[in-house]
Design a protein that fits this description.
By secondary structure, the chain is mostly helical. The protein is 69% helix and 0% strand. It is elongated.
Length: 113
């Protein structure tokens, strides 16, 4: 039985530029989808909870500190969590579709010095 680390090294060695580009696209799109979905979800939750729209510009002097900071914290944490979840899901899908984990920076071919 082959050790998982050896399998990962083998998969990394066979990773070509097309796979790295493909993973960059999949990874990027999953991050964008996560960001858009998270903002929509948090906007709905904010509106239902506060009976007001979230601040469009937290730096606006008419927006209170508490409201501005609450929105920024919610959108930042929500976005970060959603990005991790989306990219892990994308990596799982990539592994199932391609039969190997997504390429990493370590899988890039060595550059000539």
């Amino acid at each position: 039985m082959t050790h998982p680390a050896a399998m990962a090294v083998s998969a990394a060695a066979s990773t070509g530029p097309g796979q790295r580009l493909g993973w960059s696209v999949v990874s990027g799109l999953s991050g964008v989808a996560a960001a858009v979905g998270t903002k929509k979800l948090l906007t709905v939750l904010w509106t239902r909870t506060t009976d007001r729209e979230p601040p469009t510009n937290p730096a606006d002097p008419d927006t209170g500190w508490g409201e501005a900071l609450s929105w920024v914290v919610a959108i930042s944490i929500g976005g970060a969590v959603a990005r991790v979840v989306a990219q892990r899901a994308a990596a799982t899908g990539w592994d199932r579709a391609m039969g190997s984990p997504p390429p990493t920076k370590d899988s890039a071919p060595a550059k000539n010095s």
